[in-house]
């Protein structure tokens, strides 16, 4: 039975802006009253220095746009970004678009029909019999079930699969308000845009997907929400999220590693979705990791913000340059859901 291996990653990002500039030239005027001073503190302690935006608020304010207009813009911006990421991933894997047996697209920031999967398959020249899957509204952890589906297909069919995670969070800046809404401030301070593609093949060099696993605590389903409103998609983000992660993350990781005869001390690469500085601090504490273990995750948050589903793949791409032997991926999102994956380097 073939071992599914990540043979190539491709990253595409729109232009970036500094967090300080975003605050001083846009968000400092976006918030008012007591909300403004709170927002300034949250932006300053977000762990973010630079972020990318397909629709940069310094150039174009979408906060008063209706959802319909935002969705039209999503298709305009997401298509070339996805095309660039996919092209780079296929090149890295030494494959052509016609070799892809399954094409999976993950996105929670836009709707379009025909979707990105169909439009990109057409524009890139994928075969007519290429199977497609669209994963929507899973949020920040979607890359991992996407990799799981790709892995299952490769194992069962012996053909390559391609995963694309593409998010345009910049389209969902909410209208300004004097009302204190900490959840919206945090969302505005953290989120960013990116597209990352991964090619999974049967065997060869790269990182083998040893297992993808998850746990969902449905008693906390209201702690993280992503609601479709007349003014784009609105984030709900409870401050209790780190507490939920602290209850589940150690058992999830230890059980995963035990099934493969290994322990945390033998993991030399940690790709932890940086939902924010507190999330990383909780994971570091609960897993008793040394400070340097999450350096790649903190650097990704610093340089790129929270890009939702592509973020954990950005971290894997960064880690892979140092060629660690074993990587644990962790991502979190609505549910509350925790996902983990174990990657082992294949020579």
From TrEMBL:
Database matches in CDD domains: CHS_like (cd00831)
Ranges of residues in domain Chalcone/stilbene synthase N-terminal: 57-200
Superkingdom field: Bacteria
Keywords: Transferase
Keyword Methyltransferase included in the entry's annotation: no
GO biological process, one term: polyketide biosynthetic process
An example molecular function term from Gene Ontology annotations: acyltransferase activity, transferring groups other than amino-acyl groups
InterPro entries (UniProt xref): Chalcone/stilbene_synt_C (IPR012328), Chalcone/stilbene_synt_N (IPR001099), Polyketide_synthase_type-III (IPR011141), Thiolase-like (IPR016039)
Domain Chalcone/stilbene synthase C-terminal: 220-343
Active site: 140
Pfam families: Chal_sti_synt_C, Chal_sti_synt_N
Entry keyword Transferase: yes
PANTHER family for this protein: HYDROXYMETHYLGLUTARYL-COA SYNTHASE, TYPE III POLYKETIDE SYNTHASE A
Family: Belongs to the thiolase-like superfamily. Chalcone/stilbene synthases family.
Protein known as: Type III polyketide synthase
């Amino acid at each position: 039975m073939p071992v599914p291996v990540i043979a190539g990653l491709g990253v595409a990002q729109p232009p970036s802006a500094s967090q300080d500039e975003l605050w001083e030239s846009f968000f400092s005027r976006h918030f008012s009253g007591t909300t403004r001073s709170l927002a300034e503190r949250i932006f300053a302690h977000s762990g973010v220095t630079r972020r990318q935006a397909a629709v940069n608020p310094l150039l174009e304010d979408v906060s008063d746009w209706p959802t319909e207009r935002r969705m039209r813009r999503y298709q305009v911006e997401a298509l070339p970004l996805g095309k660039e990421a996919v092209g780079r991933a296929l090149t890295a894997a030494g494959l052509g678009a016609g070799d892809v047996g399954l094409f999976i697209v993950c996105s929670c920031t836009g709707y379009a029909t025909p979707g990105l999967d169909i439009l990109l398959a057409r524009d890139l020249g994928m075969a007519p019999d290429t199977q497609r899957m669209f994963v929507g509204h899973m949020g920040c952890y979607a890359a991992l079930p996407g990799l799981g589906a790709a892995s299952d297909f490769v194992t069962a069919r012996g053909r390559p699969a391609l995963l694309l995670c593409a998010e345009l969070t910049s389209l969902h800046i909410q209208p300004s308000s004097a009302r204190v809404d900490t959840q919206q401030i945090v969302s505005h301070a953290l989120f960013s845009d990116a597209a990352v593609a991964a090619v999974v093949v049967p065997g060869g060099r790269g990182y083998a997907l040893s297992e993808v696993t998850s746990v969902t605590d449905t008693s906390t389903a209201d702690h993280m929400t992503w609601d479709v409103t007349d003014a784009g998609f609105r984030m709900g983000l409870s401050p209790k999220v780190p507490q939920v992660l602290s209850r589940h993350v150690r058992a999830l990781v230890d059980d995963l590693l035990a099934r493969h005869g290994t322990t945390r001390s033998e993991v030399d690469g940690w790709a932890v979705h940086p939902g924010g500085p507190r999330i990383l601090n909780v994971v570091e504490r609960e897993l008793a990791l040394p400070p340097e273990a999450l350096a790649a995750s903190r650097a990704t948050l610093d340089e790129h913000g929270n890009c939702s589903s592509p973020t954990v793949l950005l971290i894997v791409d960064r880690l892979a340059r140092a060629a660690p032997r074993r990587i644990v991926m962790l991502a979190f999102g609505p549910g509350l859901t925790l996902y983990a994956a174990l990657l082992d380097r294949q020579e």
